[in-house]
Amino acid sequence: MGGFSIWHWLIVLLVVLLIFGTKKLRNLGADLGGAVKGFKQAMKEEQSKSEPPAELPRQERTGTTIEGEVKEKQQG
User: Fold this and answer.
1) C-alpha angle 41/44/47, rounded to 5°?
2) Would you tell me how many other CB atoms lie within 10 Å of the CB of residue 25?
3) Residue 35 CB-density burial (10 A; 0-12 exposed, 13-18 middle, 19+ buried)
4) What span, in angstroms and rounded, lies between the C-alpha atoms of 1 and 18?
5) pLDDT in tens, 13-66
6) Assign residue 63 a region: left if phi > 0, alpha if psi is -120 to 50, beta otherwise?
7) In terms of pTM, does the model score above 0.85?
8) Which helix (H) or strand (E) element contains residue 24?
9) Which of helix, strand or coil describes residue 9?
């Protein structure tokens, strides 16, 4: 009750083929496939843009420490 059997789906497919024809359905499928491919390509490009750049080589440190003391905090 309420579920469709395979015969229902075959009849729907036959009606769709009769209304639209195979050429229009093939073109629709190709357009849909191209859109999905373009979407995936855009997602890959966006993901590669958001990745952090490779870490630059660090400069050698000389081992000097800068010491300081904060005596008062000035308010402007």
Assistant:
1) 150
2) 14
3) exposed
4) 28
5) 999 889 988 888 889 889 999 999 999 999 988 888 776 656 666 666 677 777
6) left
7) no
8) helix 6-50
9) helix
